[in-house]
Every structure is written in C-alpha cells, then in structure tokens.
TrEMBL record:
It comes from Salinactinospora qingdaonensis. GO terms for molecular function: transaminase activity. It comes from the Bacteria. InterPro entries: Aminotrans_IV, Aminotransferase-like, BCAT-like_C. This is Aminotransferase class IV. Gene3D superfamilies: D-amino Acid Aminotransferase, subunit A, domain 2. Pfam families: Aminotran_4. Keywords: Aminotransferase, Transferase.
Length: 274
C-alpha cells in the first residue's frame, strides 16, 4: 500500500485522461469511484520496481474487465508523461462509469520520514476488496484521519480475531530473533511491491522469512516496519493507544540502502501529454 488522499488534489497536481486515438488529455477531478489504482515515488527521474507496479495494476485492471491493449497503451503514455526532475508521487487509476476511465494523477510527493507512530485500529476493517488497491482508498483515508486525532500517522488494521494484517497505507514487517516476519498472505493483506522486494532479498541473503498469524502483543519490543513505495521503510516509533512497546531498529538502515540501490531511470517511452 502507499500513502493516499484520494479526494484532495493540491494546486500543483495535474490530472490526465487516456482518450483512445488522442492520447493523454487534461481533465477535471472525476466523480466516479476508483476501481483500481497504483502509485510509486519518482525522485529526479528515478523509480524503484516500476515493472512490478505495472504488473499489479494491469492484473487488477484485467480482473475488472478492462481491455489489456488499452491498459498497456495508457501505461506507456503515462510513464512518458511523468516529470524527470523533482519528487513526485503519481497515481494511475481505472475509474468506474467514466467515458474515459483510465486516468493519471501527477502530484508532488508528500513529506516522508524514517519513523512512524501507529494507532492499532480497533474498529472493523473498512475494506471491501483488501487485495486490490484502489476501491477502498477513501475508507482507508478516513481511518487514517481518525488515527491522526490520537497523534498517529498510520493505523494498523487487525483481523476479526485480532491478528495483525496491513496498515491503511503500508505493509507490515517485523524482526523476531534474526528472522523477518510478515502477516500470512491468507489474511486480508494487499500484495505489496515493497514488501515483496524486501522478502525476496532477505531469502537471497539467507534470512529466514516467516509468514505469521500473530496478535498485536507479539510485536512488543520488536523492530517493526511499515513499508510502501512512497516512504520505503518507516520504523514504528510508537504504538499510540496501546501498551505495546516499539523495539530498537538495528536492521533498518541497511535495508533502506538496499531499496535505494534499486532505483532506475524512468524509461523514455510514450508520447508527452497534450
């Protein structure tokens, strides 16, 4: 997952629609629901694992009934339209009920830091489709806003039985006696590009990766991360409204360095927006 505020666009943001036969054209903010979305950080023209974001977006669009060739043409044009300088957090979208349903939102990247305060959300999981990014962005933003009222930047979602799953905008990982742990994929977790990069590299380094069914108190005193495409790795510095204590974070910096090493220049593909 990634940090999203789906119904607010800054003055510096620009929205483009894919018009068949005409390419990308400027348009107003849509009123229709988002069916599928994906986003990533572009910093000075470089991005991490862009092909994985493309694959996740394309699969979800196909599952929603979108034409594969149309999505492919839109993607290439969208990548070509992205700025090559500055820090940006673009989002591609498949919209429901729009005449031109494929949209690109080019927006400045929000501030991002190495630490995050997290509020364990005790309410029901607000997501209708937890394994697809897009349809639940507004509901997750509302939960995150409620977490901000108790001094947290993020809210951690729990299963009905109290097991840790996702946060509202990030995947959850933690360390336990030298082993990297993630919530089981059989729980309601969004397939995370950044978490996938980290767990694959951990296995290549000989680090055991455990998929787990654990309650929140299991994280007491452990190095815990929230990870996403915007901020990379953020270490949990406080569990707001909980007796769970954050642990020291000796592992974080070396893995941040690894993620940074994966940044590659954007491909020069697709026409510029009209």
């Amino acid at each position: 997952m990634s940090s999203e505020t789906p119904r607010v666009e800054s003055a510096a943001a620009r929205r483009l629609y894919w018009v068949p036969g005409a390419g990308l054209r400027t348009g107003a903010h849509p009123r229709s629901p988002i069916l599928v979305a994906d986003s990533w950080l572009v910093s000075e023209g470089k991005v991490r694992a862009l092909e994985r974001h493309r694959d996740r977006f394309s699969r979800s669009c196909a599952d929603a009934g979108a034409d594969e060739d149309t999505v492919c043409a839109f993607w290439e044009a969208a990548v070509g339209a992205l700025p090559r300088s500055g820090a940006w957090f673009p989002r591609v979208e498949l919209l429901d009920g729009e005449r031109f349903p494929l949209s690109l939102l080019i927006r400045p990247a929000p501030q991002r830091g190495p630490l995050v305060r997290v509020h364990p959300w005790r309410g029901a999981d607000p997501r209708r489709r937890p394994r697809v990014k897009g349809p639940d962005l507004a509901a997750l933003a509302e939960v995150r806003e409620q977490a901000s009222r108790v001094g947290a930047e993020e809210a951690l979602l729990l299963s009905p039985s109290g097991l840790v799953t996702d946060s509202t905008a990030s995947a959850l990982l933690w360390w336990d006696n030298g082993e990297l742990c993630v919530p089981s994929p059989h729980l309601d977790v969004l397939p995370s590009v950044t978490a996938g990069l980290l767990t694959e590299q951990a296995r290549e380094r000989g680090v055991r990766v455990n998929t787990c069914y654990y309650p929140l108190d299991h994280l007491d005193g452990r190095e815990t991360w929230l990870v996403n495409a915007l901020a990379g790795i953020r270490v949990v510095s406080e569990w707001r409204g909980s007796e769970v204590r954050p642990g020291p974070a000796p592992q974080a910096q070396q893995w941040r360095d690894y993620l940074e090493s994966l940044r590659r220049p954007l491909p020069e593909t697709g026409p510029r927006a009209g």
